From TrEMBL:
UniProt-recorded name of the protein: Riboflavin biosynthesis protein RibD
InterPro entries assigned: APOBEC/CMP_deaminase_Zn-bd, CMP_dCMP_dom, Cytidine_deaminase-like, DHFR-like_dom_sf, Eubact_RibD, RibD_C, RibDG_C, Riboflavin_Biosynth_HTPR
PROSITE patterns recorded: CYT_DCMP_DEAMINASES_1, CYT_DCMP_DEAMINASES_2
Organism from which the protein derives: Amylibacter marinus
Keyword Metal-binding belongs to the record: yes
Domain of life of the native organism: Bacteria
Homology family: In the N-terminal section; belongs to the cytidine and deoxycytidylate deaminase family. In the C-terminal section; belongs to the HTP reductase family.
Pathway the protein contributes to: Cofactor biosynthesis; riboflavin biosynthesis; 5-amino-6-(D-ribitylamino)uracil from GTP: step 3/4; Cofactor biosynthesis; riboflavin biosynthesis; 5-amino-6-(D-ribitylamino)uracil from GTP: step 2/4
One protein family per Pfam: dCMP_cyt_deam_1
EC number(s) reported in the record: 3.5.4.26, 1.1.1.193
Known role: Converts 2,5-diamino-6-(ribosylamino)-4(3h)-pyrimidinone 5'-phosphate into 5-amino-6-(ribosylamino)-2,4(1h,3h)-pyrimidinedione 5'-phosphate.
Length: 363
């Protein structure tokens, strides 16, 4: 007999499997699938690098003939359209799956209820909304790209106790400890792209790569640089042919230097303080990016907060103080009344190698 508790148990396993694809499956969502019969797992799968194969056919291949009469737990509604691969809903039907448990439905207009309808029309029992809130959060980047034409944005701020990111001379290595810096590499690996502003690109000459955990697929490196003032001979320019670099710039910027590096040049509208943020995020999403990890600097971070597009804020606070002459974590916010200030709610906070790491979501 199936119970809600049993369904939740297997769905949480499917969600954990799906999370293994975070940062590697765009433009597709990272989906998990578990096939169970009589309390025994017969097959499991998650979306592979580049978005294919999907989770369901991988799990079905493992289950083989035993899939007949089994239950499939899927973190997102099985696809119902013919693309580069046949529909997953069709594959589940052909395998003889008796019941499909779906965490949340797919807003993609090519699917959007059609996968569930296809299963039910074939006589497959379908249960929906098991662990829906967890699945909605896990697939938030894919949903935002489809529904809002922008990626899910995580903003990271690593600061001193008094909210500074560097001394008055620009010295910032290292405010946080080695464990926190490794954690940042983990966060990079679970996002499709890492984004910085022109000031950070110029001052730090960053690589923006994942250098821990044996990353298989590096995130796209994105720089918002209205006039393309970042040096094309720096780390990003020198590695643009090996790991993608996208330069978001204004119309009329001098592109010759960056064009020679192999970086993708994305012309965007201009805003008051640089590249128009909404236009840039829209063009990034149109290229398939679902999750962006923003590492600064202060002007870009303030702009993201001011425009209300920060979906997750991660603060890393170190036990050191610099003072008023230090460089603040945020640029101008133009907040006159406290009631107008962006509000975040604390989701989690923990001590980590001497630092405090906190996760915040919009209030």
């Amino acid at each position: 007999m199936q119970t809600v508790a049993a369904d939740q148990r297997w769905m949480r396993l499917a969600l954990a499997l799906g999370a293994r694809g975070a940062g590697t499956t765009w433009p597709n969502p990272f989906v998990g699938c578990v096939i169970v019969k009589n309390g025994i797992v017969l097959g499991r799968g998650w979306t592979q690098i580049g978005g294919r194969p999907h989770a369901e056919p991988i799990a079905l291949a493992q289950a083989a003939q035993q899939a007949h009469g089994a239950t499939a737990y899927v973190t997102l509604e099985p696809c119902a359209h013919h693309g580069q691969t046949p529909p997953c809903a069709e594959a589940l039907i052909k395998a003889g799956i008796a019941r499909v448990v779906v965490a949340t439905t797919d807003p993609d207009p090519r699917v959007s209820g059609r996968g569930i309808s296809m299963l039910r029309a074939a006589g497959v029992e379908v249960t929906t909304d098991i662990c829906k809130s967890e699945a909605d959060h896990q697939h938030a980047g894919f949903f935002k790209r489809i529904q809002e034409n922008r990626p899910f944005v995580t903003l990271k701020l690593a600061t001193t106790l008094d909210g500074k990111i560097a001394t008055r001379t620009g010295d910032s290595q290292w405010i946080t400890g080695p464990n926190s810096r490794k954690y940042v590499h983990l966060l990079r690996s679970t996002h499709d792209a890492v984004m910085v502003g022109r000031a950070t690109s110029t001052a730090d000459d960053p690589s923006l790569t994942v250098r821990e955990f044996g990353a298989i697929k590096q995130p796209v490196r994105i720089v918002l640089d209205r006039q393309l003032q970042s040096s094309p001979t720096g780390n990003l320019g020198q590695t643009a042919q090996e790991i993608p670099v996208w330069m978001c710039h204004a119309q009329g910027a001098q592109t010759q230097g960056w064009a020679k590096t192999g970086a993708e040049l994305i012309a965007c509208a201009s805003g008051p303080a640089g590249v128009d943020l909404g236009d840039a995020l829209g063009k990034i999403a149109a290229r398939g990016i679902t999750r962006v990890f923003c590492e600064g600097g202060g002007t870009l971070a303030a702009s993201l907060l001011r425009h209300g597009v920060v979906d997750q804020l991660i603060t890393i606070t170190a036990g050191v103080a610099i003072g008023a002459e230090g460089i603040g974590a945020l640029g101008t916010m133009e907040v006159c009344a406290l009631a107008d200030a962006p509000r975040m709610k604390l989701v989690q906070s923990k001590s980590f190698g001497g630092d405090i790491i906190s996760t915040w979501h919009p209030a």
